[in-house]
Design brief:
The chain is an alpha+beta fold. Among the domains are: about 1-45; about 70-230, no CATH class. About 45% of the residues lie in helices and about 20% in strands. The protein has ten helices and nine strands. It has helices at about 45-65, 100-105, 115-130, 155-165, 180-185, 190-205, 210, 215-230, 255-290, 290-309, and strands at about 1-10, 10-15, 20-25, 35-40, 70-75, 80-85, 90-95, 140-150, 170-180. The strands form two sheets. Strands 7-6-5-8-9 form a five-stranded mixed sheet, with helices on both faces. A four-stranded antiparallel sheet has the order 3-2-1-4, with no helix packed on it. Helix 3 packs parallel to helix 4 (about 155-165).
Length: about 300
């Protein structure tokens, strides 16, 4: 293969081959610049190298984006609020406290990064409990507000989280939020979990004024739970059942006795009517046959006279 000497340094030459490749060769002979020479095809393929380098760079960027850049966010709101950034493999790649208690809680935690997001949530809840953030006398609520594409439920994530935290001893609610909306709330320095709960309560006809002064996750989660119960048709005051009527076909307590007494009263009334009717008939017969009364009197008189004899 032929080539043209483009540069030289001692016995080292750079040659442009007829294929358009630049190669560096060590030659024993002395050649002048621009001289055409024969070279063995052991050239370094700069074009191939450039293409391979571009592919490696692209793979590196994709790997960086997949493994180190957050794909989604999950806020774990107890009272301490901690934000977890996780990649496409659901590994935590960054975390941050969203309020003072959240910052304080993270001071003693050093192993969140690299954990699976469901393990990190479980770990945070247990740490919060150990440090006294859980109320020992009232029902506790943990809200996990996570981002998803177009606000759709991430079934894989929810299954992972529910399976992991089912034995934590407190009620955990998962709430999916559209990623752009979540980021807008964060840009305003507001809490996504609190704002998300308020939005859901407003959808259930709770006024903004009633929610204005409430900034506690536990209270908002309790209110949302109550509205869910009402939505499913449960009574608002289940203890106030005294005004509720009995099921169809069932008499209230004590009504069976009243019914029996009523039937006995009807029977007694019927017998009295029959007796009264017979008395009326007898009176009518006596009026029509007065001799029956005289005959009875005469017999009585005769008997008396006989008794005198």
């Amino acid at each position: 293969m032929k080539g043209v000497v483009m540069d030289k340094s001692g016995k080292s030459y750079i040659v442009l081959t007829e294929k358009g490749d630049y190669i560096r060769k060590k030659l024993n002979k002395n050649y002048e610049l621009g001289e055409e020479i024969n070279v063995v095809s052991t050239s370094f393929d700069y074009k191939s190298f450039s293409a391979a380098a571009a592919v490696l760079i692209l793979v590196g960027i994709l790997a960086f984006n997949m493994l180190l850049i957050p794909y989604g966010y999950a806020e774990v709101a107890i009272n301490p609020s901690v934000e977890l950034g996780y990649n496409r493999l659901y590994n935590v790649v960054k975390y941050k406290g969203l309020n003072e208690d959240g910052v304080e809680l993270l001071k003693s935690i050093k192993k969140l990064k690299g954990m699976q997001v469901e393990e990190a949530i479980d770990y945070l809840v247990k740490e919060a409990d150990e440090k006294g953030y859980m109320n020992q006398t009232e029902e506790n609520y943990v809200v996990v507000a996570y981002t998803s594409k177009n606000g759709e439920i991430d079934k894989e994530l929810e299954i992972k989280v529910n399976e992991k935290i089912k034995n934590v001893g407190t009620e955990v609610a998962l709430m999916n939020m559209e990623k752009n909306h979540y980021e807008e709330i964060r840009e305003k320095k507001e809490n996504p979990a609190i704002e998300g709960l308020k939005e859901k309560l407003i959808e259930r006809n709770i006024s903004k004024e009633d929610l204005k002064e409430i900034d506690e996750v536990r209270e908002l989660a309790r209110m949302l739970k109550n509205t869910e119960k009402e939505k499913k048709g449960k009574p608002e005051n289940p203890g106030n059942s005294e005004n509720a009527g009995p099921p169809e076909g069932v008499n209230p307590p004590g009504q069976e006795n009243d019914k029996g007494s009523s039937e006995n009263g009807k029977n007694n009334t019927s017998e009295q009517d029959n007796n009264k009717g017979k008395e009326d008939e007898d009176n009518q017969d006596n009026e029509q046959n007065p001799g029956n009364q005289d005959h009875g009197s005469g017999n009585s008189g005769g008997n008396s006279s006989h008794g005198g004899n």
